[in-house]
Amino acid sequence: MSQDTLRPRMTTTAGAPIASNQHTETAGDRGPVLMQDYQLLEKLAHQNRERIPERVVHAKGWGAFGTFTVTHDITQYSCASIFGAVGKTTPMLARFSTVAGEMGAADHERDVRGFALKFYTDEGNWDLVGNNTPVFFVRDPLKFPDFIHTQKRHPRTNLRSATAMWDFWGQVPESLHQVTILMSDRGLPQDPTFMDGFGSHTYSFWNKDGERFWVKFHFKTQQGHRHYTNGEAAEIIGHTREGYQEALFGKIERGEFPRWTMYVQIMPELDAEKTPYDPFDLTKVWPHGDYPLIEVGQFELNRNADNYFAQIEQAAFSPSNKVRGIGYSPDKMLQARVFSYADAHRYRLGTHYEHLPVNAPKCPVHHYHKDGQMNFFGQVTGNTDAYYEPNSRGGAVEDPSFAEPPLRLSGVAARQPHRQLIDDYEQPRALHDRVLNDEERARLYKNIAAAMEGADEDVLERVLVHFERISPAYAAGIRAARAEKAAHRHAAE
Ligand code: NDP
Ligand code: HEM
After folding, report:
1. Which of 54, 58, 358 to mutate to test the pocket of ligand 2 (most atoms within 8 A of CB)?
2. Between β-strands 197-198 and 203-206, what pairing exists: parallel, antiparallel or unpaired?
3. Which of 218, 302, 342, 483 is the most buried (most CB within 10 A)?
4. Looking at this predicted complex, what is its ipTM?
5. pTM, 2 dp
6. pLDDT digit string (tens) for 100-153?
7. Which terms are listed as keywords in the entry (predicted)?
8. What do you get for the CA distance between the two ends of the chain, in Å?
């Protein structure tokens, strides 16, 4: 038997074997193509539909599958099945990303990195869609689209605009905590395995007795932190724009499986009334001294996707995917994200995106959503005659044992700012003055000076007032780094 007869037979999408994939069907050997060459038409039509909309943010990404293992008992805080017993394992998917760049952006650009995790738990999918930073630029979702516009292209020049970025940050001073992290070493990890991950928001846990706790999630890299300077990154980008994909994919192919340790910070429900900072303000951390890290488990990434498009590009992570024992908090940003992601997925992937294999839960799924484009799974109500609810025809029923305990809320309905008397300067000050050492601070100033290149001076003067409030030494360091940069420029001219 020849080699070729062992190979599968090529067919049309309708299954009919294809006799030739080398020549179009023409009238005569020089003749025009016949309309009836459906094989050609199908091929061209499919090519025209190969692209789907890229994610509006976090378009460039790298992902892999893995396993989460519980190492410490936290059942006193959460009844989530994923934390049910020490030693319990749960399959998972991770996707890392940059925020601002488009699909073809270079991997080694200074940017916040996305850190999105999907845990296929036996009580449904739990998605923790975080970043490699514990805080974010804004604390009110009304500001999110405007912030993102400053990170993307100017409508006329079609270039990114330093003026727009600093203009926005200068008028939203709570953003300077995140800006400090972005411009520090942590804003340019060597590859995704060398960075921590954070759920960032305050979420909640509840236990089997219905007690609620506020929780923050942390994932510490077991590979250690490694970063590039802007100069090193520029050199790498000169050789490859795909450094993160090469590193993550390569390490997993070689069996060098990266791991992260999962910790939580736990705040008793009523403490939220007492902290000097608003614990639901996404621009603030909970200091470790107040709420220490509690170890929970670890995850390992150990399997590359077989098909990047099907399993990583079509992956749909959403903060709305939560499971029993894990809930939201009053964080306004989190509340908005509960809407935004599933809406994005319906647009980007289609109505039934949760049924795509990479998104489908690995536990039974029964719902009464009906029909719609690309319904390839039929009816999942549990019984053919039960296509409405309530029914007496054996269809799936609700289970009150999964109810979330009531959430304490108070206050008037109004468009109101976060809790008054917020100090937006204290936490970036702690990072600048106490956590960073002299070399790290020097690189921070240099990176900020580089990011300010080309921005209008009035805008920069306004933002420097805020750096001054964080710490006079911070503003002075930036001014000195700018002066040094200008001197180099003049010397080169
Ligand atoms: P600690 O002194 O207990 O810990 C400092 C934290 O800063 C560590 O988690 C460390 O991460 C992290 N860190 C070190 N360098 C950087 C950097 N360049 N960018 C971002 N994080 C960095 O801190 P506190 O809890 O008292 O908080 C002090 C400040 O540290 C905060 O205002 C915040 O800016 C920053 N921070 C705090 C975090 C928290 O959840 N409390 C988390 C991350 C940062 P690692 O242990 O991985 O080295
Ligand atoms: C992706 C909206 C804040 C982390 C996205 C997407 C949207 C979005 C629409 C694209 C989703 C897709 O097409 O699949 C928002 C809104 C926010 C917000 C409206 C605030 C109101 C945040 C914050 C974080 C974050 C605070 C981190 C703590 C991510 C990540 C992705 C993402 C990691 C990529 C997920 C993936 O890998 O598929 N965001 N976002 N976002 N966002 Fe946000």
Report:
1. 58
2. unpaired
3. 218
4. 0.98
5. 0.97
6. 999 999 999 999 999 999 999 999 999 999 999 999 999 999 999 999 999 999
7. Heme, Hydrogen peroxide, Iron, Metal-binding, Oxidoreductase, Peroxidase
8. 73
